Amino acid sequence: MAATPRIALVTGANKGIGLEIARQLAQAGVSVIIGTRNPGRASAAVAELSFAGLQVRSISLDLNDHATIAAAAETIGAENGRLDILVNNAGIVDAEDGPPTSGSPDAARRIMDTNFVGTLAVTQAMMPLLRQSAAARIVNLSSSLGSLAVNGDPASPYYSARLIGYNASKAALNMLTVQLAEELRDTPHVINSVSPGYVRTDLTGQNGFMTPEEGAKLPFQYALLGNDAVSGRFVEASGETPW
Ligand code: NAP
């Protein structure tokens, strides 16, 4: 008898790195649910992956609309009874963000609302379903820009990227990784922060050193960690990122 496929939810998976994570998971035999906030973009993403012969479906999920998060958890619970993989990928930058002396506080609030509070809300809503998994894997799409050490290191290539709202949102996300990993200690469930690298997507204005497909590789790998998986880590392709 064939093993039941693992079930994954990837947030913000209608484009960019999230779409590629969804594609790679589906190619690996995972049953993938694409979380999106726009029905048209959801259909386009599902059509693209289905055309390639992959099993994916979409669910309405807006990190800024907590009713959609609760509804998504209810639907996944009713249809599957559990969730094995949660990839917290959805995230934003904001044109009014900037250095601490000039970045807009309202922009910082908007970014925090999505990248940290929204992700926290999704994770909380999905937690009962993740606890039904034999070994849940949670991946937070963080960034080297969220490293406090990197932000204070003039030798770092990321040192000059002074975006107070975005960088703080990823530092806050890393706190979720650490604290939830501790809550999940002595369970089979793990959570890690993964930095995908500098990837050419809409978020970076199509600047970067990597394609979305390349940027999806490490998050994909951490979504499928096997037995004795690490937890509470902050990693990038070259190894661990300093907090
Ligand atoms: P992207 O191409 O702009 O994609 C972002 C995705 O998030 C889109 O699907 C977007 O949906 C979705 N999203 C935004 N706000 C949302 C909300 N409120 N509710 C639901 N979905 C929402 O960006 P990306 O570069 O692939 O980024 C993916 C993740 O990687 C982000 O968390 C980002 O911070 C992180 N990251 C990226 C880089 C990089 O170099 N690209 C580096 C480090 C970390 P819409 O299409 O509806 O806007």
Task: Walk me through the structure.
The chain is α/β, with parallel strands linked by helices and 243 residues long. It has one domain (7-240): 3-Layer(aba) Sandwich (Rossmann fold). The protein contains eight helices and eight strands, in the order βαβαβαβαβααβααββ. It has an eight-stranded mixed beta sheet with strand order 3-2-1-4-5-6-7-8, with helices on both faces. Strand 4 (85-88), helix 4 (105-130) and strand 5 (137-141) form a beta-alpha-beta unit. Helix 1 crosses helix 8 (217-223), helix 3 packs parallel to helix 4 and helix 4 (105-130) runs parallel beside helix 6. The radius of gyration is 17 Å and the shape is globular. The mean pLDDT is 97. Bound molecules: NADP nicotinamide-adenine-dinucleotide phosphate (NAP). NADP nicotinamide-adenine-dinucleotide phosphate binds next to helix 1 and helix 4.
Summarize the SSE layout with pairings.
Blueprint lengths: L6 E5 L4 H12 L3 E6 L2 H13 L4 E5 L5 H15 L4 E4 L16 H26 L6 E5 L6 H4 L12 H20 L6 E5 L17 H4 L1 H7 L10 E3 L2 E2 L3
Parallel strand pairs: 1-2, 1-4, 2-3, 4-5, 5-6, 6-7
Antiparallel strand pairs: 7-8
Helix pairs in contact: 1-8, 3-4, 4-6
The site of NADP nicotinamide-adenine-dinucleotide phosphate (NAP) has 31 residues, from helix 1 and helix 4.
- The beta-strand count equals 8
Cα shape = globular
| Associated small molecules | NADP nicotinamide-adenine-dinucleotide phosphate
What structural class is derived from the secondary structure elements?
alpha/beta
The radius of gyration is 17 Å
Number of helices, counting only DSSP H or I runs of 4 residues or more = 8
Low-confidence parts:
none
CATH homologous superfamily label: NAD(P)-binding Rossmann-like Domain
Q: What strand line-up does the widest sheet have?
A: 3-2-1-4-5-6-7-8
Beta fraction of the residues? 5-15%
Helix/strand order, N-terminal first: EHEHEHEHEHHEHHEE
For the sheet with most strands, the description reads:
8 strands, mixed
Indicate the CATH class: Alpha Beta
The residue-averaged pLDDT reads 97
